[in-house]
Design brief:
CATH class of the largest domain: Alpha Beta
Radius of gyration: 31 Å
Distance between the termini: 122 Å
Number of helices: 12
Oligomer: single chain
Length: about 450
């Protein structure tokens, strides 16, 4: 027996079926979307705050925002919110300078200043090897009394009050950096040497950044001791693309000046990238097996990238001597890796003197941002140096790279490696080289 329903009832039933299908379809669609985009609800939730503040600004802020500035600040805040001090946002200008510096192309004078109370003024502390200042003949301890750029006098003066010395040095660096931005500009330096006025020198600002300072040091540090120069000193300021070549040239040059042992100073060094520091490490690496890597990078997705050595090994220039690497709490990142690997590759030949390093065991890479310009400099992995087992890669540098711990024989000979104070560390480094040589000599003569 058939039953008939009214047209109205049929229409109502159809609408009911349609209404019932909508939520079912939405549920199915959401499930499909969740499969395509994992954690979709959590992902949407992350941007609720941005959406909320944008609506508040649109509805209530009294003026039209400068959206390019807002977007850049938003990106900067996002990266800061990651809680990683090594990751940061680089503006377009910062990114340009960053890339230029890593290539070793930053124009500079190549001198570092310090305050000298004996002359009540600023003197040269270090002259970077190969810099335009070095070529001009400037030397450490030269007293800078005047500087000009483009016919305009810079603010440096012959006499500086002690409480104004830090500001005067910072101002000099800032003013010469501005001058360096002008192509082929020269800075005229007027100075005294040993209290005697010298002819002013014109320093043309080149395009190659000098990343090291190198010279011969006295072999003995204490008053009354002989001042034979057999120690080569190399201060490494940064690890840029040209740093390894500069270190190699400096070692060979110091060797020709009869250097027997070397001090490699990475105190305060933190700037550079992984590729550049690996080139520098490779100068001192000796790898007996092809499977040994100078460095292995561990990434978030559990993949690894080993960086092998080609073993250029300029350690042969330490003719019977030793190498001391000076470190402190400001030695960070790539410089820590350098200090660790030099000692690990050359046990009994390379020693660390000073203080524990900062403890940064990660590597950063820049990622250009088309939407706001500039780049995001992000930590992408953990670096694991030579000799550290895979099981300990995550924490190998948690407390920094430590100075050497004396062996029983070294302790009996009074050799210490952990010491604070910049000048005390330098003196101790020279003493350690002497003490190690004496200890080696005694052990060789014992029956």
């Amino acid at each position: 027996m058939s039953r008939k329903i009214t047209v109205g009832a049929a229409l109502a039933l159809a609408l009911l079926l349609v209404a019932a299908s909508i939520p079912l379809t939405m549920i199915h669609a959401q499930k499909q979307q969740n499969k395509l985009i994992p954690d979709l609800p959590a992902l949407i939730g992350r941007f609720n705050a941005l959406d909320e503040i944008k609506r508040k600004v649109d509805d209530n802020f009294y003026a039209e925002p400068a959206w390019d500035v807002v977007n850049a600040a938003m990106v900067r805040g996002y990266i800061e919110g990651l809680g990683d001090a090594e990751s940061r946002y680089l503006s377009e200008e910062e990114y340009k300078n960053y890339a230029q510096r890593l290539r070793g192309e930053a124009s500079e004078l190549g001198i570092l200043l310090k305050y000298d109370p004996d002359v009540l003024g600023l003197v040269i502390d270090q002259v970077k090897a190969g810099s335009t200042a070095a070529v001009s003949g400037l030397r450490p301890e030269d007293h800078i009394i005047k500087a000009e750029s483009g016919g305009k006098a810079l603010s440096i003066t012959e006499e500086v009050l002690p409480n104004e010395s830090t500001k005067a040095i910072d101002t000099f660096y800032a003013e010469t950096a501005v001058a360096a931005d002008t192509s082929s500009i020269a800075i005229t330096i007027t100075y005294k040497r040993g209290g005697v006025s010298q002819q002013p020198v014109n320093i043309m600002l080149g395009s190659a950044a000098s990343t090291i300072t190198a010279y011969m040091m006295d072999a003995w540090a204490q008053p009354g001791e002989a001042s034979e120069k057999t120690v080569g000193y190399i201060k490494i300021h940064q690890f840029f693309k040209n740093t390894a070549d500069q270190i190699e040239t400096a070692v060979k040059d110091l060797s020709r000046q009869d250097a027997v042992s070397y001090i490699l100073d990475v105190r305060g060094c933190r700037e550079g990238n992984l590729e550049s520091v690996c080139k520098a490490i490779d100068l001192f690496a000796y790898v007996s097996r092809d499977s040994d890597a100078m460095v292995t990078v561990h990434y978030r997705d559990k993949t690894t990238r080993p960086i092998p050595s080609t073993s250029k090994n300029i350690m042969s220039y330490t003719t019977g001597g030793f190498v001391v690497v000076l470190t402190d709490g400001r030695t960070s990142g790539v410089a820590e890796l350098f200090a660790h690997d030099l000692r690990a590759f050359n046990p009994g030949k390379v020693y660390l003197v000073g203080e524990p390093t900062k403890g940064i065991n990660t590597v950063q890479e820049p990622f250009p941002l088309n939407s706001v310009g500039g780049a995001a400099l992000l930590t992408v992995g953990t670096v694991v140096p030579y000799g550290v087992p895979a099981s300990g890669y995550a924490t190998w540098n948690e407390k920094g790279v430590q100075p050497n711990t004396p062996t029983e024989a070294e302790a009996n000979a009074g050799i210490i490696y952990l010491i604070k104070g910049a000048e005390q560390q330098r003196i101790r480094a020279v003493s350690v080289l002497h003490e190690l040589a004496e200890l080696k000599s005694k052990s060789n003569t014992q029956p």
